Amino acid sequence: MVLLVRNRVKDIDHWKKVFDEQEAAGLAAGLSVQRVWRSADREDEVFFILGVEDRKRAEAYMATPEAAAVGEEAGAMEGEFWFLEEFQSAKED
C-alpha cells in the first residue's frame, strides 16, 4: 500500500526543507518516502508517494495535532491524499 499526497504550498523550497526534516517521524509511523514531484505547471503544487507499513498507524499519525502543526509550519495551504493498493486485473482465458 502507498499513500499519494498532493499539497499546495506557500514556498516550495521551505516546504521541502520541513518535509525532509520530518522523515524520522514518518518512519516511526511506518511511512517511507518513495517519490517526490513538483508540478510542471504550478510552482506551488507538490505530489509525493509514501510507502505504508500499516494503514491504521499511518492514519493515527496523520490525525495528530503534531502532524497538523508540521503542515502549517511547512506552509501547506491545502492538500488531499489517497491510500492506494496495487491492482491486478483477472487474466482473460
List the helices and strands and how they pair.
Layout: E1 2-9, H1 12-21, H2 23-28, E2 31-38, E3 45-52, H3 55-62, H4 65-74, E4 76-84
Antiparallel strand pairs: 1-3, 1-4, 2-3
Shape by Cα distribution: globular
Order of H and E elements: EHHEEHHE
- At the first level of CATH, the class is Alpha Beta
Q: Any idea of the CATH topology?
A: Alpha-Beta Plaits
CATH architecture: 2-Layer Sandwich
Largest sheet: 4 strands, antiparallel
Terminal CA distance reads: 28 Å
The side-by-side strand order for the widest beta sheet comes to 2-3-1-4
- Integer average pLDDT: 94
> Helical content, roughly?
25-40%
Q: How large is the share of residues in beta strands?
A: 35-45%
How many DSSP E strands?
Answer: 4
Give the class from helix and strand content and strand pairing: alpha+beta
Total count of domains: 1
Descriptors for this entry?
Alpha-Beta Plaits, about 35% helix, globular, 4 helices
Verbal overview:
With 93 residues, this protein is of the alpha+beta class. It has a single domain, classed as Alpha-Beta Plaits (2-Layer Sandwich). 37% of the residues lie in helices and 35% in strands. The protein is built from four helices and four strands. The protein has a four-stranded antiparallel beta sheet. A hairpin with a 6-residue loop joins β2 and β3. The longest helix is centred in the N-terminal third of the chain and has 10 residues. The two termini are 28 Å apart.
